[in-house]
Every structure is written in C-alpha cells, then in structure tokens.
Amino acid sequence: MFDAHTYPYASRRTVVYARRGMVATGHPLAAQAGLTILQQGGNAIDAAVATAAALTVVEPTANGIGSDAFAIVWTNGQLHGLNSSGPAPQLLDIPTLQRKGLTEMPSEGLIPVTVPGAPAAWAALVERFGRLSLRQVLAPAIALADEGHAVAPTVARGWTASAKRFADLLRGDEYRGWFDTFAPDGKGPAAGDIVRLPDHARTLRAIAETGARDFYEGEIAERIDAFFRAHGGYLRKSDLEAFQPEWVQPISVRYRGYDVWEIPPNGQGIVALMALNILNGFEFTERETVETYHRQMEAIKLAFVDGKHYVTDPRKMRVSVEELLSPAYAADRRKLIGEMALEPEPGRPRASGTVYLAAADGDGNMISYIQSNYKGFGSGIVVPGTGVAMQNRGHTFSLNPTHANALEPGKRTYHTIIPGFLTKDGQPVGPFGVMGGYMQPQGHVQVVSNLVDFHMNPQAALDAPRWQWLEGKRFTVERAVPDHIVDQLVRRGHQIQVTHDGGSYGRGQVIVRMPSGSLAGGTEPRTDGHIAAW
C-alpha cells in the first residue's frame, strides 16, 4: 500500500511496526493501559475500551465519563458500527428555551448537556466482542485516577487555558463541582504535576462492577438527576434509563479500489465520504501541487455545506444517505469545481476537545474508536462526588424549528466525532481517525488521500501539512504548506491564512495491517501521541 520512503516530512517519529498488538492514541499512559490489557489476554476491543477509559483520566481536557462515543470494529471477517451518542433530554425543547430569551444553544451550563453515551459504549463493546470482563478492562484507568498520573505537556496547556476561561465565564453555583475537581487551586496543573481524581475512580469502579448499569439506573443516575433538578437543568434519571447504544451498519464509498467506511448519520462521517466521492472524478499524481490542494478544498466545501444542511438524527433526515452518496449526485457537485474558488451552497439531492484511538491485535481484530466532550472540558458541569464532567454536545442543535437539526426532545444532534476504517477487496486495511470538531472529515479526506493517492506510510500520512476550511472561501493552512502553493491558491480566489502557532488541525492515528500480517502504526506529531506496540 505504501512506500516507507515516500514524503519524509519532518517529524520526531517514524512508523512503528509490531506483530502481536498495537494501540495508537494521543497520550502515552492511555496507550500503555491498552497494551497492558493486550498482554493480559485481552483483544483489540478490550484494549480500546481500556484506552478510552484511561483517556477520561489523563486527557479530561477533551473527553470524560460524560462523553459520547462511536466505534467501528473489524472482527471475524466483518465490520460492525456502534453509535453511542445520547439524545436531548425529554424536558428540553425549543419553546422552553425561547421563553428564556435564547436564540441559539449555549455552549456551557446545564442546557447543552445530552445523555452521555461513553459508559454504555464501553460495556456494549466488551460484552459483545471482548475476552475479559469490564472490571479487568477498566482496572488500569481506575488505578490512574486513584493513584494519580503525571500530566502531559499538551494536556497541561489545554487544562490551564480552560481553567482561566472558566474562571472568567462560569459564575453560578452549578459550576462549583468543576472547579473542585479540576482546578481546586484556581488554576490548571503544569506539565509533570501529579493529579489524582478519586471521585472519578469511584465512578469508574461502579461502572466496571455493574456493566455501566449504575451510571444509567443506579446511584450515579440518581446523583445526576438530583443535581439537575436542584439547579434547574433538564436531564433526568428517566433519560438515562431509556438510553441504549445502537449497533449500526457502517456506510462507505469506493475510492481508488479501497472502501472507506464511516458511521452513518447522525455523525458527520458522511461529509468525508461525499468529498471523496467528488474527488473520485479527478486524478492526483503529486501531492504538492496547487491543483491537488484546490480540488480537495473545493470538494470538502461542497460536502460540508450539504452535511450541515441535511445531517441530523437519521429518523429526522429529509434526504437519504444513499442519495447523498450516489455517484450521480457526486458528479453534479463535481461539475461545480472550476479554476476559481467557489462560494459553496447546499445541493438539492432527491428527498427520500475529542480523543481518538486505534487498536489491533495479532488475531486480526481491529477497532477505530472515538469519544468526546464536544468542546474542551464540555459543559463546565461536574456532578459533585462523581467526577463526571458532562458533555456539551447539545450546542450543535439549532433553535430554528425549520432547520433539519432543530432541537427536539429525545433527538440526537449532528455529531462531529467520527471513526474511520479502510478495507480493500473485502479485507481489513485498518482503522484511522483525526479528531478535532469540524476538522474531522477534512482530516479524514486528507489522510485517506495521503495513504491511497500518494502511498504514504501511516506516520508520513499524519505528518504531512494540513489545511482546514472555516467558511465561505476561508481556509487556514499549516506553515509547512509551500509558499508558492499558498500564493497560487490566493490567486484562485481562496482566502488563506497561514498559521504559525500550531492551529487546530486535528490529532490523528492510523494502524495498517501489512500483507505479512504485521501491524504498521502512525501517531499524531501535533500532540503527545504515542504507539504502544507488542
């Protein structure tokens, strides 16, 4: 699939090879938690859940027990998808918020909190595909929370920034739990500081011992209910009790002989597939040309405006996935791409803070997994005594009743987090993902193109410079994009800002199974990425 010597972008890392197992994620301690489970007899699915739970401890700046989660699993010759995103509370609707004077969903506080899906995802994955018990699988995360861990550099920067922002923004008594848990001294920890999260450990232990039932039906659910009632929130124990993760069939498009798989809506993975479908009509021979950048940028714009216009809870979508991914519709959108940058508008098909990890084992099991608070620490709500930081996923709902993604009780919102997977000729190539809000489908398109069009190894595919569409004709690009390409893009009408301070280009991981059966992995150079290999 790739040439290990192609496109040697500057990086501190080289591609990692292993035979018996591999875990790739954005934090070394979380990757080690997954590797520990592999070495104790667990499979890739067990390792992924162990890693995901550990990430709630060591990277709370992006995810937590109160997150949602999605997964794509390859096992026994088949792909399986899991959508564990929670709906809006039954008491929350547009008229209620309009009476409060709101015209858009807030990003902090009690209102944007939806039902957390991550604990249910862990239990469902281990029950269906794991070899070990959930108690065994969560043990490394519990130990990290109980005994303490040394904070990583990238996490420390995000933690400090969030503590400063929340200190200025969050004033009510309902936010006291967040400060008591994550900033007891009024600030975030420095890199290398030891942080213990004893409440977090107790909640993880309860989840492990009850298969997550305590979180949705027991004492933790009662604590959440009581807190939201006391502070005028809308989430109730009945919302938690009603939640079940959903097994779904992943959706795909064929791209240059490879099948690219994503979770279907309400996730935005379909945006990456629509863009790749448009790009199928072009040939790319070199990566560093203005034509390559221009066509990829135009394709993602066209796909994104459709995604934002049509994607929501699949029960409420006004057009079908099949129509959005049809070759005919892709051809119609492709015709709009000319020499100059366009101002994108939705088409008219016929009606009808995040963490990512990849894991694989020597028996052929592979998993692409992602979970998220949505933005940073989430809503700023931590239920006292639980350590549970609640996500703010409801921020993506619209309060316009005519919008496809309009808020409704029990409805799942447009979801930014997406795991990806590649297969070829019915056989697994491997999991991939790029976390980071609306950067995610853009990152998927760029990484897939790097792997498939330009035959990069997994590490080079992640090291390569990235771009990000913001809106209209506006893009940011990393400083490593050649100056002459930036100049030519500007001449074509693109509004380009070159970022020198890192920017927000997502954090990715890739694992590829080689023809020999060995595993090749790449991890994100833009964060504390790590591959634990066996």
Written description of the protein model:
By secondary structure, the chain is of the alpha+beta class. The chain has two domains: 22-199 and 355-396, no CATH class; 248-352 and 417-526, Gamma-glutamyltranspeptidase, large (L) subunit, C-terminal domain (Serum Albumin, Chain A, Domain 1), CATH 1.10.246.130. The chain contains 18 helices and 21 strands. It has helices at 28-39, 44-58, 94-99, 118-129, 134-147, 153-169, 176-182, 198-210, 213-217, 219-230, 237-242, 269-279, 290-310, 321-324, 327-334, 439-452, 458-463, 483-491, and strands at residues 16-18, 21-25, 68-75, 78-84, 149-150, 194-195, 246-248, 251-255, 258-262, 354-361, 366-372, 382-383, 388-389, 420-424, 427-435, 467-471, 474-478, 495-499, 507-513, 519-523, 530-533. Strands 1-20-19-15-14-9-8 form a seven-stranded antiparallel sheet. It has a seven-stranded antiparallel sheet with strand order 7-4-3-11-10-2-21. The chain starts with 15 loop residues before the first strand and ends with a strand.
Put the structure in a nutshell.
This protein is α+β, with helices and mostly antiparallel strands. 36% of the residues lie in helices and 19% in strands. The longest helix has 21 residues, at 290-310.
Strand content: 15-25%
Assembly form of the protein: single chain
Please count the helical segments. Answer: 18
Helix percent reads 25-40%
Number of domains: 2
Give the CA-based shape: globular
Main sheet: strand order: 1-20-19-15-14-9-8
Q: Which regions have little confidence, pLDDT < 50, spanning 5+ residues? A: none
**What is the tally of beta strands?**
21
N-C termini distance: 22 Å
